[in-house]
Write a structure and sequence with these properties.
Layout (H helix, E strand, L loop, with lengths): L1 H22 L5 E2 L2 E2 L16 H12 L1 H8 L7 H11 L7 E5 L5 H10 L4 E6 L9 E5 L5 H19 L3 H8 L10 H9 L4 H9 L3 E6 L30 H22 E12 L4 H11 E7 L10 E9 L5 H5 L3
Organism: Rosellinia necatrix (White root-rot fungus)
Keywords: Methyltransferase, rRNA processing, S-adenosyl-L-methionine, Transferase
Protein name: rRNA methyltransferase 2, mitochondrial
Length: 334
């Protein structure tokens, strides 16, 4: 017992004191009674990068556009792709309304905000819960869901209605009269929301041609391989910008997303508006190009300098939408 007391206990105490400097063990109390601390196990762990992560870090560290984007405060190097296409095709101007599909992390939206200020409006849609750039309104949801598309259209119509209707405050200032504004009561607000919208607002909703530029940087999302199925509006597991590494699969998925974006542009893009979409090259892109040429005056294939040479990605830049031509007209010509 003496050997146990003199030999083992001091070593245990030294272990606890040494571990305390690293882990700071606490003494717990149950109903005011102290409970002796248990031996502390200190484990050192390190994160081991996978092969693909290491290659990605090494490639980005040496890449000129990645380093420049970081220095300039851009969300990603993809901003230079849009900047190059804008310099060539003059996509943006002041006061435009721009919709950015698959906006996360937000580099294209940053470019759109800068090019359309001070009166422009940029709306981004993505599955990922990303922090939007300053000046960008965003909706987190699956763009392929018709409910989300209707939310975007309603938001654009509401914004256009507010923009076209002068506020009461500005009218009071113009009249030069001192008017005390009365806030509507809760009951009046509920009653106003239940009343059908006026004719002008209904016309805007039915027309729907409120967008000047539609941007699509989407790619087909990966299938869910773990966790539970999620049917909610926000499903950040999926993301519309991943690639599988299989050429045909990436090509087919990008064609579906480009057609979905083109259908949205057909519903919302003004006459004379522009459309830009990313796609992965393959046999079906000629059919998409044919549809674009039916809806727009000029259609160009672009492979920006900032796009990696080994990547199959390319971009269709379609400018100046034709009048009274929809996607249905070019898909099913009479």
């Amino acid at each position: 017992m003496r050997a146990l007391k003199n030999g083992v206990v001091p070593r245990y105490e030294r272990l606890v004191k040494t571990a305390a400097k690293l882990a700071t063990p606490s003494r717990s109390f149950i109903r005011g009674s102290p409970v002796l601390d248990c031996p502390v196990s200190v484990t050192y762990s390190c994160t081991r990068w996978s092969s693909s992560q290491s290659k990605w870090k090494l490639r980005n560290g040496k890449d000129y556009f990645s380093r420049t984007a970081k220095v300039q405060g851009l969300k990603s190097r993809a901003a230079f792709k849009l900047l190059e296409m804008d310099a060539k095709h003059k996509l943006f101007r002041r006061g435009q309304t721009v919709v950015d599909l698959g906006y996360a992390p937000g580099s294209w939206s940053q470019v759109a905000v800068e090019r359309t200020r001070p009166d422009g409006r940029v709306v981004g849609i993505d599955l990922l819960p990303a922090q939007p750039p300053k000046g960008v309104s965003t909706i987190q949801g699956n763009f392929l869901d018709p409910v989300v598309q209707n939310m975007v259209k309603d938001y654009l119509a509401e914004f256009a209605q507010r923009k076209s209707t002068p506020s009461r405050d500005s009218q009071d200032v113009d009249s030069g009269e001192d008017v005390i504004a009365e806030k509507p009561s809760y009951i009046d607000t509920e009653r106003a929301e239940s009343v059908e919208p006026d004719a002008s607002h209904q016309t805007n909703v039915n027309d729907g041609k409120l967008v000047d530029v539609v941007l699509s940087d989407m790619s087909a999302p990966w299938d869910q391989t773990y966790g539970f199925s999620c049917k909610t509006l926000s499903n950040p597991y999926n993301r519309l910008m991943n690639t599988s590494g299989m050429v045909f699969r990436d090509h087919a998925g990008s064609m579906d997303l480009c057609l979905a974006a083109l259908q949205f542009a057909s519903d919302t893009l003004r006459v004379g508006g522009h459309f830009v979409c990313k796609f992965y090259q393959g046999p079906e892109d000629k059919d998409l190009e044919k549809k674009l040429k039916g809806m727009f005056k000029h259609v160009r294939r672009e492979k920006p300098e900032s796009s990696r040479s080994e990547s199959k990605e390319a971009f269709f830049v379609a400018t100046y939408r034709k009048d009274q031509v929809t996607l249905e007209d070019v898909t099913n010509p009479e």
